[in-house]
Q: What sequence folds into this?
């Protein structure tokens, strides 16, 4: 069974490759692509983008601050954590923009709740069951015939990608996805003509099954069209980015990709752990951006990196930091309106009970991405109007 | 009232019925017992479109499966893994409104897991699925896992009377599935590896539990 599936796939490749190479691959892009990267656990923004000229930073973090000599200085008062060395090139090339002090009113310091707020774009007092990208699908993807318009690189789907009518598509990698559709019984019932399902929910289940089966085949083929020459690091995160790049380059009919990196909840002995993660991130992104650039795709792709909250200004007794509020957010791409630092450094002297006050509402950023990048009606999707900020 | 109707009757709301129920409920001084009585004793509650249409929640799905074949996990954590992967952790609803339920249980990944799960459990197959990690974990769970368990088919096979594969399948389908399965019953009994009755019952149970129809609540026998 497995062998025959492989054999038939192998036979399909040449013709398929031809089509792609001389057809779609050379054709114009089908549209702009948004890649969302999530740091789960609450990344400590102050040790990521370091205010190395600020005495308050060093006073609040006597044994956790990044020493001035180690900071990779990129502006007169801010610099990168040394683990982000790979990002410095992107910064210098003008393909990275950093927005400081991003948050929302009445911040919630629970991971789950704050992540839900970012995913649903709700007020902190409001509970929604649908995500902002899911509602984008509801609004802009009504006529979509394929379910992979938004793909999350994971085995389960995040709330951000669940709409009221439509949902994104989760897969950790196409080969793994294909294994879940290998089941003989499911392959047999997947061929049932749709006309026989009368009851609405039965029809819905069969439709989802059949769509998943055909998507598995499509994505598996698409993932093999392009083999990158860029060397990606060995991490799981980099593997996800590499898959995204393969799919984008093969002009997969997907506008949104979602990936995450987890483990940022650094309450104790923060430095080693956070820097290991930041390095994975930076090296992965460097390879990813280089890959897109080589394929002339960097102008069509925008990458946003966020975390559910930043961490407190003061270090704790375990040489770590506890849950905080506003944080920095990164954008990468070839089409940025303002590369470098979008706004000023976080204000460490005007705190809210030891936490940073937000200056930019994340929903202003969503508004801009929806309106200007995804051609979507932001107020309708977010449930209210935000001005947006001049990012892209 | 719409919520009650959606939960107990049908996700597709009949506005006329809902407004009648609302009036009665108001006139009864908000007597929940009376409300439920009038729902459960109504004609429309037992009308074919309102039966067997509800998508099981992950807990209902898993508990039903486990009870049907008297299954016990070797590691109790297996149960928690399933809850996390399917999006319903007991006593831990996403917010005060509870789980939205219905179609929202289903996306491509949860559906494939729900359809494959009976096979993973019956055969203790190794499969790979990473759930969203905890926030403090540095790596997402990954790699293969096996949900080893013991199951006891005796109670179920004891209640099956037929002897041919098709008869057994038809009886089990009636017992396990909400709706008449999409294909004629013979199409589900092809290529059975076994010929003895016990193995046929076991294999047919697995096959029927793999069908999308098994994701729905049983129809009630009026």
A:
């Amino acid at each position: 069974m497995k062998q025959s599936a492989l054999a038939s796939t192998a036979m399909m490749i040449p013709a398929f490759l031809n089509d792609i190479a001389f057809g779609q691959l050379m054709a114009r892009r089908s549209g702009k692509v948004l890649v969302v990267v999530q740091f789960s656990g609450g990344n400590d923004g102050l040790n990521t983008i370091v205010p190395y000229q600020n005495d308050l930073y060093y006073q609040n973090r006597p044994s956790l601050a990044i020493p001035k000599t180690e900071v990779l200085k990129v502006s007169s008062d801010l610099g990168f954590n040394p683990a982000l060395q790979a990002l410095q090139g992107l910064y210098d090339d003008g393909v990275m923009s950093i927005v400081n002090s991003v948050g929302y009113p009445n911040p919630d310091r629970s991971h789950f709740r704050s992540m839900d707020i970012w995913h649903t774009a709700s007020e902190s007092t409001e509970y929604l069951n649908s995500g902002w990208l899911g509602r984008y699908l509801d609004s802009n993807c009504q006529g979509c015939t394929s379910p992979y318009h938004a793909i999350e690189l994971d085995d389960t789907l995040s709330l951000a990608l669940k709409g009221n009518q439509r949902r994104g598509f989760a897969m950790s990698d196409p080969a793994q996805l294909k294994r879940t559709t290998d089941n003989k019984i499911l392959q047999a019932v997947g061929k049932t003509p749709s006309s026989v399902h009368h009851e609405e929910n039965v029809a819905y289940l069969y439709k989802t099954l059949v769509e998943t089966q055909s998507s598995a085949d499509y994505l598996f083929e698409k993932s093999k069209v392009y083999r990158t020459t860029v060397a990606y690091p060995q991490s799981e995160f980099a593997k996800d980015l590499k898959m995204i790049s393969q799919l984008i380059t093969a002009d997969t009919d997907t506008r949104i990709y979602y990936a995450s990196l987890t483990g940022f909840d650094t309450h104790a002995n923060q430095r080693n752990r956070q820097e290991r993660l930041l390095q994975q991130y930076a090296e992965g992104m460097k390879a990813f951006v280089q890959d897109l650039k080589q394929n002339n795709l960097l102008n069509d792709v925008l990458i946003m990196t966020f975390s559910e909250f930043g961490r407190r200004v003061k270090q704790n007794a375990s040489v770590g930091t506890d849950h905080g509020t506003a944080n920095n957010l990164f954008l990468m791409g070839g089409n940025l309106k303002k590369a470098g630092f979008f706004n000023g450094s976080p204000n460490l002297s005007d705190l809210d009970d030891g936490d940073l006050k937000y200056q930019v509402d994340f929903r202003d950023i969503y508004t801009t991405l929806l309106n200007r990048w995804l051609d979507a009606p932001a107020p309708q999707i977010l449930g209210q109007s935000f001005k947006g900020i001049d990012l892209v | 009232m719409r919520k009650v109707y959606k939960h107990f009757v049908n996700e597709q709301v009949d506005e006329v019925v809902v407004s009648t129920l609302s009036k009665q409920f108001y006139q009864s001084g908000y007597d929940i017992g009376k409300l439920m009585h009038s729902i459960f004793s109504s004609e429309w509650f037992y009308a074919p479109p309102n039966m067997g249409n509800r998508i099981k929640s992950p807990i209902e799905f898993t508990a039903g499966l486990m009870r049907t074949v008297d299954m016990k996990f070797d590691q109790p954590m297996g149960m928690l893994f399933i809850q996390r992967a399917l999006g319903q952790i007991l006593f831990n609803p996403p917010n005060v409104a509870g789980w939205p339920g219905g179609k929202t249980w289903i996306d491509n990944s949860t559906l494939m897991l729900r359809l494959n799960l009976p096979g993973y459990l019956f055969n203790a197959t190794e499969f790979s699925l990473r759930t969203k990690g905890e926030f403090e974990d540095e790596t997402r769970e990954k790699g293969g896992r096996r949900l080893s368990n013991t199951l006891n088919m005796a109670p179920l096979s004891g209640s099956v009377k037929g002897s041919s594969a098709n008869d057994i399948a038809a009886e089990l389908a009636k017992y396990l599935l909400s709706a008449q399965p999409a294909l004629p019953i013979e199409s589900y009994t092809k290529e059975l590896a076994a010929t003895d009755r016990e193995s046929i019952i076991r294999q047919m149970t697995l096959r029927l539990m793999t069908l999308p129809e098994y994701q729905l609540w049983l129809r009630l026998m009026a």
Residues 1-28 of chain A have pLDDT under 50 and may be disordered.
